[in-house]
């Protein structure tokens, strides 16, 4: 006696990862634009959602697609579906600025004047 449930219509949204510091959790900023009902001006509103990232593959700056799911914790109600676009600067090492021609800041106490 198997009962097949009809597929539910879950919301899918796209956003940019703003934090990946927690284990298996990413913070995604989702922007939406709409016309103000009274004044007619285009208004942008940002919403911050926490999403489950099982493999830990999303990095800060990546554009991702998340889908609504059951509550996984007090704040997590979204799950990572796919990474739409990678951030090209995400994999650079911390010393990349020095190699790119930016001068290194002098250490405090160095008087080279």
Protein architecture, described:
The chain is mainly β. The chain contains one helix and five strands; from the N terminus they run βββββα. The protein has a five-stranded mixed β-barrel. A hairpin with a 6-residue loop joins strand 2 and strand 3. The chain starts with 11 loop residues before the first strand and ends in a 14-residue tail after the last helix.
Within CATH, the superfamily of the domain at 12-89 carries the name: Nucleic acid-binding proteins
Radius of gyration: 21 Å
Biggest sheet details: 5 strands, mixed, barrel
What is the N-to-C order of secondary-structure elements (H for helix, E for strand)? EEEEEH
CATH class (first level) name of the domain at 12-89: Mainly Beta
**What's the helix count?**
1
Q: Tell me, briefly, the overall form.
A: extended
- Pick out the low-confidence regions: 96-100
Side-by-side strand order of the widest sheet:
1-2-3-5-4
Looking at the overall shape, the CATH architecture of the domain at 12-89 is: Beta Barrel
What is the typical, i.e. mean, pLDDT?
86
């Amino acid at each position: 006696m198997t009962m097949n449930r009809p597929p539910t219509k879950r919301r899918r949204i796209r956003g940019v990862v703003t934090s990946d510091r927690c284990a298996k959790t990413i913070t995604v900023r989702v922007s939406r634009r709409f016309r103000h009902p009274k004044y007619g001006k285009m208004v942008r509103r940002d919403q911050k959602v926490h999403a489950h990232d099982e493999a830990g593959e999303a990095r800060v700056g990546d554009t991702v697609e998340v889908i609504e799911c059951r509550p996984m914790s007090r704040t997590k109600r979204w799950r990572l579906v796919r990474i739409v676009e990678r951030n090209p600067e995400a994999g650079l090492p911390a010393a990349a600025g020095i190699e790119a021609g930016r001068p290194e800041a002098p250490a405090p106490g160095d008087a080279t004047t």
